[in-house]
Amino acid sequence: MACNEIAALRLALIEVLGGLPARTQLISRTRKDARRCRPAVDEGRRIYSAHKFTPEQVRQDPARHGRITRIFYGGKRRSVRY
């Protein structure tokens, strides 16, 4: 992907996320092996941290406590862990 395409996607995402109504949460899906990172802290001129992680590592982390709620999805009420 070219830099201008990434910038356009980023701006579109900001526009969508910025327009969510009050008391609305966006739920999305991602690949288990997608690499993520947090903003850099005390790493010089870096914007993003060099430490990378996957959603699967976060899901399996025993230090993170998940919550369960019931939502209406796919025509019936279902339990969702997040």
How would you describe this protein?
The structure is a single chain. It is extended and about 50 Å long. A hairpin with an 8-residue loop joins strand 1 and strand 2 (48-53). The protein is of the alpha+beta class and 82 residues long. The protein has one domain (3-81). The protein has a two-stranded antiparallel sheet. It has a two-stranded antiparallel sheet with strand order 3-4. Helices cover 27% and strands 27% of the residues.
Keywords:
two-stranded antiparallel sheet, two-stranded antiparallel ribbon, single chain, 82 residues, alpha+beta, 4 strands, 2 helices
Describe the structure concisely.
This protein is α+β, with helices and mostly antiparallel strands and 82 residues long. The protein has one domain (3-81). 27% of the residues lie in helices and 27% in strands.
